[in-house]
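Researcher: Structure for this, please.
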Amino acid sequence: MKRHLISSSQPLAPPLSLVPATAAIFYTPSQFATETMTVITPSVPHAPFSAPPLPMSILRRLPFPSLTPRHRLPRRRFATLAAVRQDTTVWIPSPVSSIEIAAESLFHVSIDVSNSPDLVASHTLPGQYLQLRLPDVEKPSFLAIASPPSLAASTGAFEFLVKSVAGSTAELLCGLKKGDVVELTQAMGNGFNINKIDPPEDYPTVLIFATGSGISPIRSLIESGFGADKRSDVRLYFGARNLRRMAYQDRFKDWESSGVKVVPVLSQPDDGWTGESGYVQAAFAKAKQIYSPKGTGAVICGQRQMAEEVSSILVADGVSKEKILMNF
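Model: Predicted structure, token format:
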């Protein structure tokens, strides 16, 4: 292997009786690749010495190693910084109007948005959701809006059905009092695109499925009105552990009057329960009664397993996947 020899002779420090030393540095391509070099130092103890710089003509010919990934700055840091810079979320302070128990572990939360016309105007479709955060709490909650868009327009309120989970922002929210201030984003998401299952005469059957707090956006849909009274078969399969965990029971009568047949399904019913038991998907599979798959639409909100199994049953029975509506 070829070596480059560079020598430099210069007088060293006293004593003068010593012969000036010659320093030689040998460079090889492999030594540059491993960032090591062989240096022959003067034999004079404590003599000041420094390696002479390489001429540019030699530097250009040396095979310096390319910058490897381990030498580069981590991309994750830059991605984080970019995300911070791009966070343009607008948070709107809004006071709590009321917080009431809706069912076991579920709370009915009403937020006053009457002083935020842009926030009110952002809620246009049932099934939309927003982010809510509390002062000094870093992580926000995503909440589906339970009230229909018309309620905010007429009364200036957004209503939510919130499940209190230990250690979560939702738990802190459920512990607030009237007048406490939270921060909201504008409503987001496409909601339930009811246009896909309109007009009612072409889609006389609409099957609705919800579990737990998933009934929240379903309430918005039913109370917004989607022509249920003009359809021949509209059913809501609503699942909960037991009646104590089933919210909105006080609204069932009004929903029935609007043309929606409510079918409660309890997975762990108390003694004396005579209605449907088990899981929503099993109760529907037992009943089915899909007379015209091409004229059937569906709306689903709740547990992922339930949503997937119900969707599979519907598609297997001939219902178009495009007619199965979800809000997320």
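Researcher: Any notable elements?
Model: The radius of gyration is 36 Å. The first strand starts at residue 4 and ends at 9.
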